[in-house]
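Throughout our pipeline, every protein is held as a single compact record rather than as scattered files. The record that follows is passed on verbatim for readers who wish to inspect the format:
___
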Amino acid sequence: MNQPLRLLVVDDHALFRRGLVSLLGSMPEVEVVGEANDGQEALDLIQKVHPDILLLDLNMPKMDGVATLQALRRLERAPLVLMLTISQNETDLLSAIKAGADGYLLKNTEPEDLHRSILRLARGQGILSPEVTAPLLKVLAQGDQSEAQILLSEREVDVLRCLADGLTTQLIAKQLYISENTVKTHVRHILAKLEASNRAEAVSKAIQMRILRSEERG
């Protein structure tokens, strides 16, 4: 890794936030480029410091984690988002993932596991705390269409529909008003989440899982 990963820490508890910043400072692969007290403050900072990864709390005043994730979808180059929260609530987990979180860790995570998770996230791998994996798998096993869709964010589903129509990266970028690099990032996440080796397999799996309807295939 040539350049350190640029991290922005967002948490309304100052003591925890500053402790986390201190911990991250001991990791040679990362650089903390800012910290914020809530989602709105984070959105303002993102435009100035351009982080690679957001470490985002879920429950915050003014703008919580889910609202922040939804606002990030409007950015042309949004950072990856790793939720770092105390909540093991199934609704919170599903809401965060559906809103676009790339990972979900609990605040009791060991420092070494946090370190590994940040590096894995940067490589495009999804991250879940062991404590929340079982509830998520239980929901997915029920096979309900609305719950199967939580695997992908709304924007990822938009990209997936474009893939089903056979659109190129360039055309998807124009249609969704995002950059080609952002499209490539979404496609990479879609392939990882659906465990697909290529775009055609991703579309096929999405239809099998009822994330897409068969008539949406171009």
Summary: The mean pLDDT is 85. The domain at 145-211 is CATH 1.10.10.10 (Arc Repressor Mutant, subunit A). DSSP finds eleven helices and six strands in the chain. The beta strands are 5-10, 30-36, 53-56, 80-85, 103-106, 127-128.
